[in-house]
Amino acid sequence: MEQFIWKKLGISSNFSIEERLFMSTTFLMSISMVLLALPIYLFYHSGVAFYFLFLGVGLFCNYSVVRYWRKLVLAKILLFVLSLAFAQILFPITAFLKGPVIYGMLLYFLMSLATASSTLEQRLHLAYVVLLGAYLIFVLTPLPDTITAGIYYLIYLSFALIFYLGTVYLKQTYDYNTKQLSEKSAKLQQLSQKMEQQIIETQELAAQKDRLFSIIGHDLRSPLSGIEGFLNVMEHGGVPENERRIMSKELLRLTRNSRALLDNLLRWAKRDTKAYQATRVDYPKLIQMVGEHLSPLADSKGISLKVLIDDGEGSVYGDADMLEMIIRNLISNAIKFTASGGWIKIRAYELESELRLEVEDNGIGMTEEQRSKLFSPHREVGLGTNREKGVGLGLMLCAEFLSYMNGTIEVRSVKDKGSCFTVHIPRKKGQAED
Question: Region 331-352: what's the mean pLDDT?
Answer without folding.
Answer: 88
